[in-house]
Design brief:
The structure holds two protein chains of two kinds. Chain A is of the alpha+beta class. Chain A has 26 helices and 17 strands. In chain A, helix 2 (35-46) crosses helix 20. By secondary structure, chain B is of the alpha+beta class. Chain B has a single domain (2-87), classed as Beta-grasp domain (Ubiquitin-like (UB roll), Roll). The chains are: A alpha+beta, B alpha+beta. The A-B interface holds A 232-233, 235-236, 239-240, 242, 244-245, 247-248, 251-253, 273-274, 314-315, 428-430, 438, 451-452, 455, 457, 460-464, 477, 480-481, 509-510, 514-515, 579-581 and B 7, 9-11, 13, 56-60, 62, 64-67, 69-70, 85, 87-93.
Chain lengths: 626, 93
């Protein structure tokens, strides 16, 4: 019997208004773990081909990992998944906080939302008591108002997850928020929740989690705690969070600027981590069992952008800042706050506005298109205004709410050239001409452009020792060189396999990937003492590979092949104009072929080969699709 | 001997109380030696591994945006006007 889990899955049929509880399938856990792997398996089987993501036939899954709510450092996470309305392929997103641990303490590892409710509802969980309740009076409320109302009604210790107006209005990059300002932001799954008329999930769990080996559990976790606290990254993360990445990224020319025309922003110091820390920081914040504490609260005390709340991290800082040519830090802090309030992905939000700004700069968009709104680079009042208009689908915001690729297709006139997406999702804050592995990772990620599916940061900041540990000497020094495309295929493949395992355990990538403090043998040790699972390093690697291949099959079944694993021409054909990557392009074809070879996928088509699927026990899945 | 600019970031900047300095040196090692002379313990205790004399684990030194590990490490020769940077442990996305 698997320990350290809630033990039950909640099946919520919204069309029928029926809730069932079923035990976790332990055979499935041994092949896919929980979290991302569990949802990959379930949704592959459940979501039909050829449906609209807003159809009631789409399934929205929310799951915790095998180590969520454990004492493993940074073990707070849950995952949401479904057919993405932004990419129309595999959609998956993750968040930290306290909501995931609370769900597990209530006795549940996952919630599967089927069908769609006729009227707005929310799911209320108080341990064994689970009810679908009327949400008509909070439909239209923002994320913070919803959290306030639910905690007033169900108790201050209730944890909430839900959508704001963006999800209700089917903004294609709407987020599912939890604990007020934590976001499962990418892939637009907030809009799927909105399409099902589900406003929120309130949870109160007061149960216990029984660990498998109580004698060795604390001893093992103590070792992990000491290692995490002693890691040199921890002190810096507590001090700056991820905000001081901006200075590093600008220095190496990897900071998306002016819609990724370049990787260096001349006004970077105005929006830097140092500026935020000196003038706006209230305090760092930690989620469940988090020792890195990269979350933080910030405050703008006066003026039009006055607020107090969650602070932007590097991605929001860059997308709403340099990417839009915006050097007004208070507007960045405030827009991030608005995005949380309305429930939107700040990466796609900033990237979509920056696309429009470049189109404006090129004279392809005018005041006639925008309703008179000025879209000049760096116009922070416009960024704030458009954020509200997108969430509420007002005026020009209604077009931008479709994401940059669909907006460009609708407007035409050559604006398509400035769309910085992969598979319709906007590329995150990694200018790949300055870090080639990030270019490859963006095209191979299952949910469209994404830096986190692989999170290939081993070439970023001097991890040669860790590279040797994972790969031996075979690929050094080239693999550690950001600007060298050589051996990035093997690196991205290895990182993807490991990261999907981490997403299936409910752990953070800070601690498992950067810094690379914990690796397979450590999570295997944790799974032994916490869950009673005896999985070897090789078992876990195979599970990671199985999940990645199943995600690929999900997408292949929806038409994805090598031709879709591509970057915008700007990044593969136009040399970077300034900074350390000056003259560089992303040599994508070579990296992609190397990646497919390591994956055991057909190099011409990018489709997994039959023998690869057979080794992973997935041959039946492929045959069923044919 | 050439003159190079050395920029400091985050906690390194805090420890030294300055954003950048100009240093006359021929190699990366000489620059670090000059910085130890100039800033004393503030620099050496923040940045240098006392056992090896090299940078502490995960600290990054770059010359014109390139990590020294990918150049000639501490023997990397410098040119007039080169820009060096010293970062504490930082990375991710």
């Amino acid at each position: 019997m698997i320990r350290g889990i809630g033990g039950q899955i909640l099946w919520v049929d919204l069309t029928k208004g029926r809730i069932d509880k079923k035990p976790v399938d332990e055979d499935l856990v041994e092949k896919y773990l929980l979290g991302a792997g569990f949802l990959s398996r379930m949704l592959f089987d459940m979501i039909p081909l050829g449906i609209d993501p807003f159809s009631p036939k789409n399934v929205l899954g929310i799951a915790t990992g095998l180590l969520t709510a454990s004492m493993f450092p940074q073990s707070s996470r849950h995952v949401v998944a479904g057919l993405s309305p932004l990419t129309e392929i595999w959609g998956e997103s993750h968040a930290a906080g306290f909501w995931g641990p609370e769900l597990k303490l209530a006795g549940y590892d996952a919630i599967m939302f089927l069908g769609a409710s006729k009227d707005p509802v929310y799911l209320n969980i108080e341990n064994d008591k689970v009810d679908l309740l009327d949400a008509s009076h909070i439909w239209g409320a923002d994320v913070f108002e919803t959290d306030d109302w639910l905690r007033e009604k169900h108790g201050k210790r209730t944890r909430t997850l839900g959508i704001g107006q963006a999800g209700e209005n089917l903004v294609r990059f709407a987020a599912i928020m939890n604990d007020r300002d934590r976001a499962s932001a990418r892939a637009g799954l907030g809009a799927v929740m909105g399409s099902k008329n589900v406003k929120a999930v309130a949870v109160r769990g007061t149960g216990k989690i029984e660990v498998a080996d109580s004698k060795n559990y604390l001893k093992q976790m103590d070792i992990f705690f000491d290692r995490m606290l002693a890691n040199p990254f921890t002190k810096e993360r507590v001090k700056y969070g991820t905000t001081n990445l901006l200075e590093l990224m600008n220095h190496i020319g990897r900071l998306p600027t002016y819609n990724m025309k370049q990787g260096v922003f001349e006004k970077y110091e105005k929006i830097s981590g140092e500026t935020i820390t000196q003038h706006y920081l209230v305090k760092p914040r930690a989620d469940w069992n988090c020792l890195q504490r990269c979350g933080r609260y910030t405050r703008v005390k006066t003026g039009p952008y006055k607020y107090i709340g969650g602070s932007p991290e590097f991605e929001s800082q860059s997308s709403l800042g340099s990417r839009c040519g915006n050097a007004n830090i208070e507007s960045i802090l405030y827009t991030h706050h608005l995005a949380n309030m309305y429930g939107m992905d700040t990466i796609s939000l900033g990237a979509t506005i920056s696309w429009a700004m470049e189109a404006w700069d090129e004279g392809l968009l005018t005041g006639e298109d925008t309703g008179g709104i000025d879209l000049s680079w760096g116009n922070h009042e416009t960024i704030v205004k458009l954020t509200e208009m997108i969430a509420l689908r007002e005026g020009f915001g209604n077009i931008l709410a479709e994401g940059s690729e669909r907006a460009a297709a609708r407007i035409g006139r050559g604006t398509e050239e400035f769309v910085m997406t992969v598979k319709k999702q906007e590329i995150a804050g990694q200018e790949p001409r300055a870090q080639k592995s990030m270019g490859l990772a963006a095209v191979t990620a299952a949910r469209g452009a994404d830096h986190l599916y692989a999170f290939p940061v081993l070439d970023e900041a001097g991890f040669d020792v860790e590279i040797k540990k994972r790969f031996g000497n075979e690929y050094l020094p080239e693999i550690a060189d950001r600007l060298n495309p050589k051996f990035k295929g093997v690196m991205v493949k290895e990182c993807e396999d490991y990261m999907v395992v981490i997403e299936s355990l409910g752990l953070c990538k800070y601690g498992t990937q950067i810094p690379p403090e914990f690796y397979y043998e450590d999570v295997a040790a944790a799974l032994r003492v916490h869950n009673g699972l005896n999985l070897s390093k090789q078992d876990l690697k195979t599970i990671g590979e199985r999940i990645v291949n199943l995600n690929r099959l999900f997408n292949v079944a929806r038409g994805v092949t090598r031709k879709d694993d591509s970057l915008p021409d700007r990044l593969t054909k136009e040399p970077s104009p300034v900074g350390p990557p000056k003259g560089q392009v992303v040599e994508l074809d070579d990296m992609l072929s190397e990646y497919y070879e390591h994956r055991g996928w057909d190099v011409e088509t990018g489709i997994p080969l039959p023998e690869t699927l057979k080794c992973l026990g997935l041959e039946k899945d492929w045959k069923e699709l044919l | 001997m050439v003159t190079v600019t050395v920029k400091f970031f985050a906690t390194v900047r805090e420890a030294l109380g300055t954003r950048s300095v100009q240093v006359d040196a021929s190699t990366v090692r000489e620059v670090l030696d000059r910085l130890i002379e100039r800033f004393g313990k503030d620099f050496s205790e923040t940045v240098i591994d006392q056992e090896t004399g090299d940078l502490k684990r995960f600290f990054s030194c770059m010359v014109n945006g390139r990590r020294i590990e990918l150049l000639d490490r501490y023997d990397t020769k410098l040119k007039e006007g080169d820009s060096m940077a010293l970062f504490p442990p930082v990375g991710g996305g």
